[in-house]
Amino acid sequence: MTSLKISTPAGFDQFGLGAPIERAIRDVGFETPRAIQAETIPAALAGRDVLGLAQTGTGKTAAFALPILERLLEPHQPGDPRALILAPTRELAQQIDTELRRLASFTRIRTATIYGGVAIRTQIAALRRRPEIIVGCPGRVLDLISQRALRLAQVEVLVLDEADHMFDLGFLPDLRRILAALPRRRQNLLFSATMPRAIRQLADEVLNNPHVVELASAAPAETIDHALYAVPEHAKRDLLERILAEDGCESAIVFTRTKHRARRLAEQLEKSGHRTIALQGNMSQSQRDRAMQGFRSRRYDVLVATDIAARGLDVRSVSHVINFDVPTTPVAYTHRIGRTGRAEREGVARTFVTGEDRTWLRDTERMLGAAIPRLQIQGVASESIDSPTGPVRTSHHKRGPAGRSGGPRAHASRGRRGRRGAASGNRDSR
Q1: Where would I find the beta strands (DSSP E) of 333-401?
Q2: How far apart are CA 234 and CA 380, in angstroms?
Q3: Is the dihedral of CA 354, 356, 358, 360 positive or negative?
Q4: Which in 44, 108, 272, 367 has the greatest CB count within 10 A?
């Protein structure tokens, strides 16, 4: 594998894309390619395999969507799918499909999404309309292959998006079965935020002399002002209410450890006057779709979620991510807080750490290579989380704009102040 240096991108016209795609690019408002796009699109257009290592929210979807659409512009007899895009979650599959449709809006290229949680008959009917591109989750893809409703013999391009998360969710055996059903001669595009050993091995097996672009970093994006509060369990609710009441908190995703906790916290926040909705694994697909649509449309200002929402959910206007409970792993910290500060916008991330979370904190700071800035709000109980010899970076602030910690990255959100009512005022309770 060979890596290339990141160069300064010009406009999208540098890629020489077909007129229908260039028209769609202008229509959706794309102007300058993001780094991952500038460094992977030329190689993908040339037919090379690509390994892209980049965090979520960096523009990966267009990085593989545009080369695929360009390839499919050439006239072709209708038949079986020519491109297969695999994603770890239903939400991410839907978002990829939405972006593909926007970029293909002036072409006749058809797409279909296939994932669990909805009636398989509807998806079989969609496949009968002979879409050129399939976006799906591994489990349902295998189901449809076994029912002979999905044939992959004509696939020219395979995309594995968020490959590390597919591994985390146990999809590696499914991926290998799908790979066995694909033609040997094909183009492979693999994108991942991290590169654990299993994904490195998969990349070595799947990719042929790939063009490699490494933008991924364990550190949060520069646009995210992240910090933690050392707080006892009983004080978390009070602290959460104080943060949600700050002027700069326009919309927030609050992460909890369990489904029950997400439901209960959402109910409590609703009762205290916040427009809140929960998102967790026991919900049906239609319920999850309604929850996300309500959050995107600002019917709800607060989304309380389990880690089902930590990857792939592209809601660009999220001002705050609040880890009510710490993530299960250090890597998940970066993925969770990456729900804010997307598409080069600024965002705020806050994590509530109790004395029981010391091991997680030590491992996470070791992964980041730096201490996470400590904050404290007057009037909210705090808890000791550091050893006497450990690094402590603590700042104190009163209620006001979020993120003024004075520590590293503390000023990331300076100057971006929205208007939001106090915790119990100016909110439509539903």
Answers
A1: 347-353, 374-377, 394-397
A2: 10
A3: negative
A4: 44
Q: Would you give the end-to-end CA distance of the chain in angstroms?
A: 54
Name the phi and psi angles at 229, rounded to 5: -120, 130
- CATH number, domain at 274? 3.40.50.300
Nearest C-alpha neighbor of 280 from the set 307, 300, 254: 307
Higher pLDDT among residues 333 and 343, named by residue: 333
Q: Which residue has the higher pLDDT, 412 or 339?
A: 339
Q: What span, in angstroms and rounded, lies between the C-alpha atoms of 127 and 144?
A: 10
Q: Is 330 helix (H, G, I), strand (E, B) or coil?
A: helix
Q: Which two tokens stand for residue 184?
A: 């040997």
Question: Alpha-carbon distance 23 to 414, whole Å?
Answer: 36
Q: In the numeric block, which tokens belong to residue 79?
A: 């038949």
- What pLDDT, on a 0 to 100 scale, did the predictor assign at position 187? 98
DSSP strands (E only) in 149-201: 157-160, 187-192
Segment 192-248, tens digit of pLDDT: 887 778 888 899 999 999 999 988 666 677 788 999 999 999 999 999 999 999 888
Distance separating alpha carbons of residues 237 and 232, to the nearest angstrom: 10
Cα-only R_g, the chain: 22
Burial status of residue 184 (CB atoms within 10 A of its CB: 0-12, 13-18, 19 or more): exposed
Whether 74 maps to a domain, the answer reads yes
pLDDT tens digit string along 364-418?
A: 998 888 899 999 888 888 888 875 444 434 333 333 333 333 332 333 333 333 3
3-state SS assignment for residue 14: helix
**Do residue 184 and residue 244 come from a single domain?**
no
What average pLDDT score do residues 299-312 get?
80
Tell me what pLDDT residue 223 has. 83
3-state SS of 198-211? HHHHHHHHHCCCCE
- Amino acid 217: pLDDT: 63
Write down the pTM of the prediction.
0.65
Q: Which two tokens stand for residue 173?
A: 């055996």
The count of structural domains within the chain is 2
Residue 332, both tokens: 């998940």
Q: Give the span between the Cα atoms of 266 and 341, in whole angstroms.
A: 23
Q: Which residues contact 208 (CB under 8 A, 6 or more apart)?
A: 49, 188
